[in-house]
């Protein structure tokens, strides 16, 4: 059983959480100017790295608050859990799939 540490409630069972997809996907600056292809890329295209990946999670059976986590997609290990912007040490590896 996987334990996830909620920033507000502490360690809880994974069944209390829901996955919210890739973290730090910026909303388009001028959404009215996007083509259909650019909209589809924003809405549906997400990275699928092998390794560190920044994700959104929500504690649905607890405080119901959203937070971010960097999780290793190979080992399922949570490397860091945070709210707000990505920690500087994890930004590069987590947001580009570990590639430079
Ligand atoms: Zn919580």
Q: What Rg, in angstroms, do the CA atoms define?
A: 15 Å
- Helix % is 10-25%
Order of helices and strands: EEEHEEEH
Multimeric organization:
single chain
What does this structure look like?
This protein has 100 residues and is of the alpha+beta class. It has one domain (3-23, 35-96): Folate-binding fold (2-Layer Sandwich). The protein has helices at residues 36-44, 88-95; strands at 3-6, 10-13, 18-22, 52-58, 66-72, 78-82. The protein has a 4-stranded antiparallel sheet with strand order 3-4-5-6. The protein has a two-stranded antiparallel sheet with strand order 1-2. The structure holds zinc ion. Residues 6, 8-9, 59, 62-63, 65 line the site of zinc ion (ZN).
Q: How is this structure best summarized?
A:
The chain is α+β, with helices and mostly antiparallel strands and 100 residues long. Helices cover 17% and strands 32% of the residues.
Layout of helices and strands:
Blueprint: E1 3-6, E2 10-13, E3 18-22, H1 36-44, E4 52-58, E5 66-72, E6 78-82, H2 88-95
Antiparallel strand pairs: 1-2, 3-4, 4-5, 5-6
The chain binds zinc ion (ZN).
């Amino acid at each position: 059983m996987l334990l996830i540490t909620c920033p507000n409630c502490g360690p809880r069972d994974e069944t209390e959480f829901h996955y919210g997809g890739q973290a730090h996907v910026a909303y388009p600056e001028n959404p009215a100017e996007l083509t259909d292809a650019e909209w589809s890329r924003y809405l549906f295209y997400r990275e699928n790295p092998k390794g560190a990946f920044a994700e959104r999670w929500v504690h649905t059976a607890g405080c119901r608050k959203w937070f971010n986590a960097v999780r290793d997609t190979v080992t399922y290990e949570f490397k860091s859990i945070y709210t707000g912007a990505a920690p500087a040490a994890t930004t590069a590896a987590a947001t580009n799939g570990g590639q430079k």
